[in-house]
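pinned: reference chain
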Amino acid sequence: MTTLDTTTTEDDVVGRLRHDVEALVSLDRRTTRPGERESARHLAARLTAIGAEDATVSTFATQSSWVPAHLAHLLLAADLALLPHPAARLLGAALTASYELEVSGRSKWVRRLLPSGEGASAWARIPAAGPSRRTLVLAAHHDAAHMGALWHPGAVAASRHLARSTGHALPTHAAALAAMAATAAPSRAVRLAGAGMLAAGAALMVQSMRSPTTPGANDNASGVAAVLEVARRLAAEPLSGTTVLVVFPGGEEAGSTGILPWLRAHRGSLDPGSTLVVNLDAVGSPGSVAVARREALSNRASAGAVDRAVRAAADLGVPLRTITIPNPTDAAVTTLAGLETVSLLSVRDGWISHLHRPTDTVDNVGWSTVRDAARLTHHLARTFDHEAGR
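pinned: its structure tokens
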């Protein structure tokens, strides 16, 4: 079997991957907590150690959870459902649209009105060996999620069954979105039913926000470890005409609040015509690597990005599934920014293993899947660079 590096064994690769995952799992990496900042500093040091340049820790304003912004939408929609005036119906419809814009990453206006703390990201640069004609962004969020009843196996059983049988996961926010839409209905009975659903959903969100942080071995220490392994190889053997930016955003579990300011800061160097983003998220399910063609309800990857991943997997003989996933990742944000983005994940029985659960530990990571994700990412980097040469 082809390895990521012909000078080391497969055991060496897995040993490095496991070491990096264990280092992150030892920290409480919830956004805005000291563990997230320590994680970012650790990753900046790791990037420097493997030979990347200009390793930097950057901070950004964010809430520690996605819940406050979602909760604001739900509670306001429930209040509107009780008002008889026709204007309340229009506001309810507008609020429903705003909620989808919030979840998809298209507009986060509510967050600017909420109290915030400080999140942390880390990034570095690997220069091209020659004149740089393209930019490759390797991304993997390093923060970890809070848990809660929302992610209990019983709560996600229907969505998991649908994903396993069809490859299409039900968006996690679908029920709340439907309940919000009900608040714009002319029928008072429908509006009250929607308000009841929103109240129940709000209670579950609060319970989730108050839950402990998951260890986050698969989601997403596995993605970070795979990117570090690829970055190590690219620092040792730079791409001929492609600059590589390695970014570990914080705040993904709070609603992709770290990748957004990083994109704003680097927009001048990210030409959509010559930039490829490869985002790795939860690549340690002991099943197979997957590429996302849709995330949540409306975040669709470009057909070219999906085809690029499929071709690369075929070149390597790596099994690759094409799926939809229930939640948006940082890949949704980079796609919205106009950048071709390959979103790599992993699934087992149609679902990301141990998603936001206390069992997301080092011992439950599928190392062969993480290794395959790293191999696939490295091959994507090389083929993208060869396109620049042609």
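why pinned: The longest strand covers residues 53-62. The beta strands are 53-62, 117-126, 134-139, 242-248, 275-280, 288-295, 299-300, 320-325, 340-347.
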